[in-house]
Each structure stands twice: as structure tokens, then as C-alpha cells.
Amino acid sequence: MERHALGLAAAATAAVLLVVFYYPVATVFVDAVFVDGRPTIEPILSVLSSRFYLVDIFGFTAYQALLSTVASVLLGLPGAWVLARFEFRGRETLRSLTILPFVMPSIMVAIGFVATFGQNGTLNAVLGAVGLPPVDLLFTLEAIVVAHAFYNAPLVARVTTAAWESVDASAVETARSLGASPTRAFRDVVLPQLLPAVAIGATLTFVFTFASFPIVLALGGFQLATVEVFIYSRIQNLAYAEAAALAVVETAISIGLTYWYLRYEGRNRGSGQGARPQPRRTLWPEAWTAREIGTRVGIAAYGVVVLAVFVGPIASMVLASLTGPEGGVTLEHYLFLLERQQTGASYQVRPLPAIANSLRFGIGTLLVAVPMGVALAVLTTREFRGRAAVDALAMAPLAVSGIVVGLGLLRGLVFGVEAFGTRIQVTGALAVVAAHAVGAYPFVTRNVAPLLGNLDPRLVESARSLGATRVRALVDVELPLVAAGVVAGAAFAFAISIGEFDSTVVLAEGSTSYTMPVAVERYLGRRLGPATAMGCVLLAVTSLSFVIIERFGGRYGGRGGF
Amino acid sequence: MKRRTFVRTVGAGGVVGLAGCVGGNGGGDSGGGSNGDTATEADSDSTGTTTGTAASEPPELVVSTYGAFVDAPSTSPGPWLKETFESEFDATLDFATPDSEINYYIERALQGVDIDADVYVGLNVDMLIRIDERLDEGLFTPVDDVSGQGDVKEGLNFDPDGRIVPYDTSYVSIVYNETMGDDGDYVAPETFDALLEPEFEGDLLTQNPTGSSTGKSFLLHTVDAKGPDGYLDYWEELQANDVRVLSDWSTSYNAFLEEEAPMVVSYSTDQVYANREGQDLAKHRIRFLNDEGYAYPEGMSVFEGTDRPELARDFLEFMLRPDVQGEIAQRNVAFPATTTADLPEEFAEYAQAPPEAVTFTYDELRDNVSEWTQAWERQFASK
């Protein structure tokens, strides 16, 4: 059994992908190449020959995604450096919470941004207090870019932190003892191990922001419409051929980029020994040399930016949930949640079931996505022809528009297929977990694969020669050494599940398996109180979950090392 | 799948042993397929959630609608309607609220999957056009001689084929904040032309016509005011004057409340809420551009495949009754569809109707609305 465990895991992964991803998506994509039952390339051709679509839409979408990627990397890297290289109280908790922006429903981000960066927002209040002129950030390209950085800088930071914590200190020490300066040692030893992580963070960010939808219209406006806005519009109007053609082109670009990255990742294999992280420095230096002071000023400045971009929007959402209609502190919105819980009818959305469902799906996703992701990571660190292509196909769930996946799940799973005189349908909790896992496992793979690739193959070989099976060697030797990556991947898997909306509403249609983001959406009304209160509940529940995941994962990692 | 034999051996004992993998149409029990696909279809349905005592239980009416109709955080008509209807009729009323609303059922019909709802509440002319464009057979049955239909206001009926009965209507207008002027006396422009004046630059928030009914109504209002040949030029100037077209009503209304801009496209019943919530009415003034408001009636109809046509008709009649019309209007914060609704005095005080209601007919929209919207999208999103 153990002998074939990896193969089985890979086969199971392929089967799940086929049922809850490839088949459903194919039911939509087919509209781009079949019209009235006849094969045609007309829809795709008309997209590719339209100057408006190519330049104004695809060109602009790529441009804003590029800006967003640069902003996310610039904002995420210093965070990774602080988290990986400095020791301070609450560091681990802070590291767990960096993923929080990732689960914020877009409507909450929009609310937080208006309150923070709007004309009467916190930022302008602060600027006014120190005598600076107000800035108007909203409804511009800048607002979209900052919001995308809000979502994705944490991703860059997390992936890079995991890689940084897996750098073997002895390699750095060796370089230093051979006379390399700290800068030189960093450049030659540490940087090569960080670059793949930064590159994957950047690639994922680009793919995500390329398919961004609600944020673009909520903080930018229709003049800044992206591809996804037009896909949504065409699907709303049931113009499936055009929607599918747009989605096919969008996916091709994303997958192409991912493939290109994976070729690069495959060429950059390190040969690390293990993971004995370098000792961290204290935030409060021993001696105040010029260099140390410069470093601390930099960290302080970065702290201010983090306050503005991350803490500001989240804090203003918390504040909104405590504010009454004419200002003044109130708990009425939370009372609304209690009341809805107690008196809500069966067809209404109640907070507690939403919390319970979210947690159930989140834990389920974690349990399914981590083995899936690790199996694929092991597979892709082997050398075989077409590895990058297989890998890129496995990454496809990130590259396909969420709106298209939603429609595909409706056609493919909710409606089901006629077979042997019965209709086979796949809905309910299992389907939701499967759909979430498909969206989540690529994160596990991408967090683990680069680190696995960096391990010295002799570690596995010696374990195998001592009689361990491949799986045994993986679980006992390799995974503990790359625990930072596994834990980061697991946290992402959980976060993806908590934040997922498109597939959840389709698969939980009309039943009682609504989740926290669905509840937030439902409680939106003329006043924002109830929705923001639910949003705060979502944040509280997920924060706690992340801290628990990290603590638990940290213990597992503690078994490894030397 | 050996589901058939499995079902036969267990009988209709309400076994839920398939872990949500097979069957189950969202927990509802449609009591047989409407298209009568196969015997098995009906078979597997009857094992859904029934407990084998179907005969003694009151019949079930499934009413599908949009989420806010049953679940808005302020007030929604849904719960009251269910309670009142069930107290008067021997029936159970169940709500279904698919996220993609009517598109969910159009999609079901397109894919040949049976529909498990009896009535849809919340139809508009846009949806009707989509139904008629995509489906050879209408989704809904013609509804005539429902008592109370004669009381529906002239001009609200939007279906030439008589499948849809309006139950309420809103008017889309500008809502503005008087306190945002330099001396606290901001005055919104009175005409579409005045909206282009430099003094109103960046002052108006509206919504994506594809994702929002207010946004769509405002766009159509400009088509009505400027003509199909002139509305794009008008929008070009509006865009130059920095109009903001945001994703949806909530987002834009929140920005308006945060005083990001002094005007927002919304409903003319805005003060009903403002008054209810004790807000400053000066921050919620209504303006009807060109003295017009764009009418947005909502309608209901009976699904073609319903197996409870009588009960569905009872429900429609119930919805048009004067007392029920008054309740819907107050709880949905909209105007009743009939002339005979029972409404308190104060409703008229805060719910403002336009001097003149504007709306396009079904026929005018059917041939043009997609084209108008798509041309607008292309122009507005050109970088």
C-alpha cells in the first residue's frame, strides 16, 4: 500500500480535477469552439481580431496586473525580511495573520478603502493634521493597484518567508568563513534560494490580478474595466460564445505565463542540505551603529506603510461595524446577528451555521488539498519530459475565471449528466470541499515544490537505502525539512476555502450550506452595519484558525531538522 | 450506479445515505419532474426528503425570488408573506433564492433539467427579454383573469404576452446630499444637460448597467432623453465630466454615505429609509432629472411546469390584494403596483413619485437593449 501511496495520491488528484474542474470548465469552453453543434473558430477569432478587446481590454488588464504585481512584490518583500530575519514578541502570530487580507470579501475591502483613502477618509485626516494637502485616491488606477497589493503582498511575503526560513545557515556560515562579506554571502547563498519564491509569488499575483473582477469596478470604475468585467457581462446576458472566447484567451495567457515560470523554476534547483535557519536578529539592536540605525529607520517607515495599507482598511471595517446611523458607538449590528441567529427562518442566512459551514469546508479543504499538493510537488520535482506542461495543467485552476468555473459547476455538477436512465448530480458539502481543494492545492504545491527541489537528493537516497519506502522517506525526512512551506501551503488552502464565493454559491444553491462570505453578501443593505459586523466575525474566526494552524504545523516541523 | 434497485429495496423511507453525492435538488422535493423525463427521475425525487406521509401534509408551493426579498437586514416582505399566506391557505410556502436569480432557471431550461419552483417573484423586462431570446418555449405560463389584475396601474404591465403580473414598482432617480455644498446648500442639477456643467464635475455616482438594475435604468433613461443616436455622445461628455460608474448599488451608495460624492443614482423612495433610520433628510434629497423618473416595475409569474397551478394562482391573487400590496410596498420600500393598495398616510410623505414616469416598452427594448448596452460598454471602457 505504502509503496503505491504517491501514485494513488496523484491518480486521486487527477480524478478530482477531472470531475470538479476540467469537465465543468469544458462545458463552458465548448461554447467558444462549437456554435449550434458545429465546430468553429469564429468566436475566438472575433476576439483576437478586435482592436478593442486586444488593446483596450487585454492590454489594459495585463498592464494593471503588471503594476499590481510590482506593487505587491515591493510591499511584500520587506515584510518577508522582517518576519524571517528578526526576532520579536508576537512574530509568529503576526506571521499567521499576514494571510488575513487574503480572506477579506471584496465588498469589505471596498468599504475599508473608501473609509481609509476616500476624500473624508482616515488618510486625509492624518495628512490634514500634519498640514499636508489631501489626496484623492479613489476611483483611479492607483486605487485598484493598492487594493490588489492589499490582497497579494501577503502572498508574496508568506511564500518568501517560508523560503527564507528554509535557507540552511551552515551554507551562509561556510561562505562567511571563506571570507565573503555579509552582502556577498547574501547575494551568492541566500538570494538564489529566495528568487524562485519571489518569482512564484509574483507569478501567482499576476495570474490573480489578471482575472480580478469586483475590486476593479468597486474602486476603479467602469472606465478601467478588465477582461473579467466583460466575461461577467456576457455571461449575465447569456452570450455564451463570446464569454467563452474571452475566457479561453484569458486562460491561455495565464497558463502560458505559468508554464514559462515553471520552466524557469525547473532550471533553478539549489542543493541545500537541510533547514537550520539562520539566527534571527533582535528588533532592538545591541549597539546603535549607523548601519543598525539605518535598518531600524527603514523598518519603521515600512511599518507606517503597512499601517496605512493593511491595518487602516481592516480597522475602519471594525469601526463601521460599531458605528450607528448618525455616528456614535453602538452594538446594534452585532445584536442584529444575534437576533437573526435566534429568529431567522430556514430560508434566511444565519450567522452560526455560516461559521460552522465555513470551518467545516475549510478543514475539509485542508485535509484534501495538502496531500494533493504535496503529491504533485513530489511529482514535479522529478525530471521527465513535459514536466512543465503537466505542472502548468495542474496549475490551471488558478488561471480560469472564477465566473466561468461557477457556470461550469452549475452545468456539470449541479445539473449533472444523464447516465443509465438516472441523472447523476454532485452537490452538497463533498462537492464544495472538492471544488475548494481544487482551487487550493496549487498553493500547497507551489509552496512546497521549490523547497523540495532545494533539498539534497542524498537525504532521500540514504533513507531509501536503509529500507524506507519513498513515502516513508517523504514523511519522515523531507517534509519536516520543508515544514515551513507545508504550513504556509496549508494556511493558504484554508484561506482559499474561507474566502471562496463563486463555486460555493453554485454548489450550495438553495440548500443550507452557505458560508461566511455568503452571509456577508446577504446582510448587505442600505446600511453597512450588519454586513461589516458579519465581516468582523469572519475575520475573528479566521484569525484564530490561522494561529492554530501555524502552532500545530510548527510542532510538526519541530520533529525535523538536525 | 445501482440507485434504482437501491431505492426499491429501501422504499421511500427518507434515507439520506448517499452523502450528498447523487440526487437531491437542493433539499427541495419537487414531487416529480415537470418534463416527465423518466420514471426514475420521479422515483429518485420522491426519496429526497419526504417521510412517507405526503398525503396528510399540506401541499408545498415553492416561490423563487432574489435574496433581498426574503433576507434583507432592514425589512423584507418574504417572512410576512409566508406567515400570512400559510395562515389563510392550506399550504406550505417555501422560498428558493438561487444566486444567479432568473438565469439559474433559464440555464436549467437550456440544459433540459426540470425546474423545481412554482412561482418566480422579482421579474423585470430585461429578464423577460433574455428568456424570450434564449428559450423557444417561454419559461412561464400566460396568467389571465387573476382577480385584482384589473387594479394594476396602467403602464406597469411590461409583458405583451400576458405572462407577468407586476406587484410593485420603483422609480430610479438622483439622490443628493444638500449638506455637501460650500455653504451647506448643494443643489443637484435639474436636467440631463445641466449635469454636464463643470460645477458638477465628479459629483455623480452610478452603477454598472450589467450588474445593477439602477445602473441599467439610468442608462436607459439617458437613451430616452437623448435618443438612441444621441445617448453615446451624451455619455462621452458625462465621462469627461467625471461620472463614476461603479460595480453595484451597495458600493456606490456606501461611497455616497461616506460623502465621496454628493449625488448617487438610486430610488426615489430613499427618504422612507432615511426617515425610518432617523437620518438627516437633508442628506437624502431626491431629484428627478427633466422632471422624470425611470419606472422599474417588478413582476411575478407561474412556471410552465408547475404541478400546483391552482395554488400558484391563489398566491398571485393574494399578492394583489389591497392589504398585501400595502405591506409589500412598505417592506420592500417601493410603490404598490395596484391603485387599490392600503397604505398609511406617511408613506406618501416620504416616498416620492416623479411628475412623469419614463420607461421603454418590451418591444422597443427587445430589439435594442443589448446593442445599446454593449455600445455603451465599448465606448466607456475604451482606454
Would you kindly provide a written description of the structure presented here, covering whatever features stand out?
Chain B: InterPro entries: ThiB-like. Chain B: Keywords: Signal. The complex is a heterodimer of chains A (562) and B (383). Helices cover 73% and strands 2% of the residues of chain A. In chain A, helix 2 crosses helix 12, helix 3 crosses helix 7 and helix 20 packs antiparallel against helix 21. Chain A is mainly alpha-helical and 562 residues long. In chain A, the strands form 3 sheets. In chain A, strands 1-2 form a two-stranded antiparallel sheet. A two-stranded parallel ribbon of chain A has the order 3-4. In chain A, strands 5-6 form a two-stranded antiparallel sheet. The model of chain A has no long low-confidence stretch (mean pLDDT 90). With 383 residues, chain B is of the alpha/beta class. Chain B has 2 domains: 228 residues, Periplasmic binding protein-like II (D-Maltodextrin-Binding Protein, domain 2); 143 residues, Periplasmic binding protein-like II (D-Maltodextrin-Binding Protein, domain 2, 3-Layer(aba) Sandwich), CATH 3.40.190.10. Chain B contains 14 helices and 11 strands. In chain B, strands 1, 2, 3, 4, 5, 6, 7, 8, 9, 10 and 11 form an 11-stranded mixed beta sheet that branches. In chain B, helix 5 packs parallel to helix 6, helix 6 packs across helix 14 and helix 8 runs parallel beside helix 14. The longest helix of chain B has 20 residues. Chain B is globular, with a radius of gyration of 23 Å. Chain B starts with a helix and ends with a helix. At the A-B interface, helix 3, helix 5, helix 10, helix 11 and helix 18 of A face helix 2, helix 3, helix 4, strand 2 and helix 5 of B.
